[in-house]
């Protein structure tokens, strides 16, 4: 294939645009904020799950407290009833003895239930404290995520602005290059890790950075300026006279 020296020099500009684009896309995809956001989001989600679990546990324990309070209330009601009968003086001696025994038994049971009630209330306090801590931690992660999102968006905006500028310059340059020559470049680039053209500098290909033997260099120098040459190693378009 033949291509004017001007087209060959401009294909190097296209290659430079493409290399800069690849580098910017890599930086965009590997921003530190991406990994930091993933970590913070995972921690936030785990904290949220723990808070929800604690709130569910709190609901269960509150129902347990209601049952304990109802049991205590029932015992108190029975004690009040028995004490009223004892104080009325209408019971027989045997009934009085039975009532006194029952009041004593109910008193023991009341103390046991009140101890259970106190333990449940302490558990509620502990769960409430845990929910508060988890909610504060969740809010902290939310603030961290918001800050990281802003940092990420600012960085991406900078990359996108630069990418748009490169794209405009590339399109302007492409419009003045032979379509057939450009198609060859694109075909090579697609199968050569993104490198479609490189300069011949000091006897080396600037694409693969390997030296070219003297015989091949002599053959290239004898070719016409508009003859398109390729690197024997990486097969990219090799632009002479740069």
Automatic annotation (TrEMBL):
<dbReference type="InterPro" id="IPR052376">
    <property type="entry name" value="Oxidative_Scav/Glycosyltrans"/>
</dbReference>
<protein>
    <submittedName>
        <fullName>Unannotated protein</fullName>
    </submittedName>
</protein>
<feature type="coiled-coil region">
    <location>
        <begin position="51"/>
        <end position="116"/>
    </location>
</feature>
<keyword id="KW-0175">Coiled coil</keyword>
<feature type="domain" description="CT398-like coiled coil hairpin">
    <location>
        <begin position="15"/>
        <end position="191"/>
    </location>
</feature>
<dbReference type="InterPro" id="IPR056003">
    <property type="entry name" value="CT398_CC_hairpin"/>
</dbReference>
<dbReference type="Pfam" id="PF24481">
    <property type="entry name" value="CT398_CC"/>
</dbReference>
């Amino acid at each position: 294939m033949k291509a004017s020296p001007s087209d060959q020099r401009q294909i190097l500009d296209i290659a430079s645009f493409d290399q800069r684009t690849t580098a910017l896309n890599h930086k965009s995809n590997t921003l530190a904020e991406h990994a930091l956001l993933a970590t913070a989001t995972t921690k936030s989600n785990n904290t949220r799950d723990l808070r929800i679990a604690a709130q569910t546990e709190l609901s269960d324990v509150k129902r347990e407290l209601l049952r304990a309070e109802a049991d205590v209330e029932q015992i108190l009601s029975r004690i009040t009833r028995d004490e009223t009968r004892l104080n009325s003086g209408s019971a027989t001696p045997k009934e009085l003895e039975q009532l006194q025994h029952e009041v004593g038994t109910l008193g023991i049971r009341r103390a046991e239930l009140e101890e259970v009630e106190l333990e449940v209330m302490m558990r509620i306090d502990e769960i409430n404290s845990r929910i508060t801590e988890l909610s504060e931690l969740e809010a902290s992660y939310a603030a961290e995520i918001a800050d990281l999102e802003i940092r990420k968006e600012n960085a991406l905006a900078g990359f996108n602005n630069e990418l748009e500028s490169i794209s405009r310059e590339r399109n302007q340059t492409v419009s003045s290059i032979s379509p057939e020559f450009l198609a060859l470049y694109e075909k090579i680039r697609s199968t050569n890790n993104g490198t479609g053209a490189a300069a011949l500098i000091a006897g080396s290909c600037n694409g693969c950075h390997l030296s070219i033997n003297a015989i091949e260099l002599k053959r290239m120098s004898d070719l016409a300026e508009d003859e398109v040459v390729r690197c024997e190693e990486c097969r990219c378009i090799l632009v002479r006279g740069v």
